[in-house]
Write a structure and sequence with these properties.
- The protein is an alpha/beta fold.
- Helix 3 runs antiparallel to helix 11.
């Protein structure tokens, strides 16, 4: 445990070479030259070069690519370094799409893999979804998506016993994450990073560029509003193909999946996985939204000229409100039992018992081995090993009382305890 604490302010870009790069870019920009150019053709060309193939399977990525890049230009106020990093991020996602498609063409048997009754955690960020996915993923009959698998899914890792060495992509992903953490140390205190930790399956939506993952790294409200109304069928097709491909070499009884992205598109989720066992985590939105506003600003700060945190904070508050209103509307028209509701307070108070109760609701029991794994994980899990995340609604011109009022319909409906206001 460390006594260091971080806020979004600590994510200011410090590297002198990168600051110099931005200074040169700013001078060029005054003459109407913004480099690199955020053009769809150049992004796709970089992906094709990296993947060694020009076959993206379909053109479903084209509209989101165009909308996202236009929003970057209009909304994000990116520095030269921000433009470079964003270009690389998008081209890497499309390169993964190309590789995934090629693998499925060369190995058509992956399409026969059945993704049966996945357990899908859909709560807002900062509501215990990460720790819950880790606990559920300790079940020897289950499998979470790991961070290194999401970053480098092809070729799918195998169960071969002939090669006892770890997959080199684990070390590669660790190196990539270490580079990110060196650039932006506060992130490690704000979110769990680790090549072999459970990863949000939001990363699989990246292959179709219809994903909240793009919004956490860049301020793109125009893209955000497009995504909220977008058809997610093709994104879920990429999501399923990735799981099928990974499962073809490492079978599992069930997948443990989690991302808030599903909460924005519950109908699309259930259309893609009709037998999904859905878990909706609930927590007081006041600290959730404030923490998320801080996290989003921390992620974006090294890439943008903008120093005012309020636009990003207000956008994510709006997004959370939209997600909850959409999910509540879905809940109201759905049959009882379409999901299991789980409260953050219960999970934090007694993680093992909360998991046991969840299994019982799904007609199952936690095995002795799974319980032992959970107990060991909880005993040895480091607490605040990389520092603590401090956040304050005043940074964004908010108050906890105002946030409580804004989200009162949701908290009343689901009996969510306030963490910031004294009981009446």
């Amino acid at each position: 445990m460390t006594d260091i604490s971080y806020t979004w302010r600590d994510s200011e870009l410090q590297a002198k070479p990168l600051r110099a790069l931005n200074a040169v870019g700013a001078r060029l920009s005054r003459f109407g030259v913004d480099l690199p150019a955020l053009k769809p053709s150049s992004i796709v060309a970089a992906a094709v070069k990296a993947a060694g193939s020009s076959d993206l399977g379909s053109d479903s990525y084209k509209e989101p690519l165009e909308v996202f890049l236009a929003s970057c230009t209009a909304d994000a106020d990116l520095t030269t370094f921000g433009r470079i990093l964003t270009s690389k991020f998008i081209s890497a996602a499309l390169a993964n799409r190309i590789a995934l498609h090629k693998w499925s063409v060369d190995h058509p048997e992956v399409h026969q893999e059945r993704i049966e009754s996945p357990w899908v955690i859909v709560g807002l960020p900062r509501t215990g979804t990460s720790v819950l996915s880790m606990l559920l993923g300790l079940d020897p009959m289950a499998r979470p998506l790991l961070q290194w698998e999401a970053a480098h899914p092809i070729p799918p890792p195998t169960l071969s016993l002939e090669d006892a060495d770890p997959d080199p992509r684990i070390a590669q992903t660790t190196k990539e994450m270490d580079g990110l953490m060196k650039l932006n140390p506060p992130l490690r205190a704000m979110h769990p990073f680790g090549a072999t930790l459970a990863q949000e399956c939001v990363s699989l939506f990246l292959f179709d560029l219809r994903t909240l993952a793009l919004e956490i790294t860049v301020h793109v409200p125009t893209y955000a509003r497009w995504l909220e109304q977008a058809d997610m069928t093709s994104a879920y097709a990429q999501h399923r193909l990735a799981l099928q491909t990974l499962q073809s070499r490492q079978p599992t009884e069930r997948w443990i999946l989690k991302t808030p992205n599903h909460l924005w598109h519950l109908e699309a989720l259930l259309a893609a996985y009709p037998d999904a066992r859905i878990i909706w985590t609930h927590r007081d939105p006041a600290p959730v939204v404030t923490s998320l506003a801080s996290l989003a600003n921390a992620g974006q700060r090294p890439l943008t000229w903008r120093s005012d945190p309020r636009p990003t904070a207000n956008e994510w508050k709006r997004k959370c409100r939209f997600a909850l209103e959409s999910a509540v509307a879905f809940d109201e028209k759905s049959e009882e039992g379409w999901c299991q509701h789980l409260h953050y307070d219960d999970l934090m108070a007694d993680p093992l018992e909360t998991v046991r109760q969840l299994y019982r609701r799904f007609g199952s029991e936690v095995s002795d081995l799974h319980a032992r794994r959970i107990e060991t994980f909880l005993t040895h899990r480091p607490k605040d090993a990389f520092g603590t995340h401090r956040y304050d609604p005043a940074d964004f011109d908010w108050t906890y009382a105002g946030l409580a009022e804004e989200f009162s319909d949701y908290t009343a409906r689901y009996h969510v305890r306030s963490e910031t206001l004294a009981p009446a």
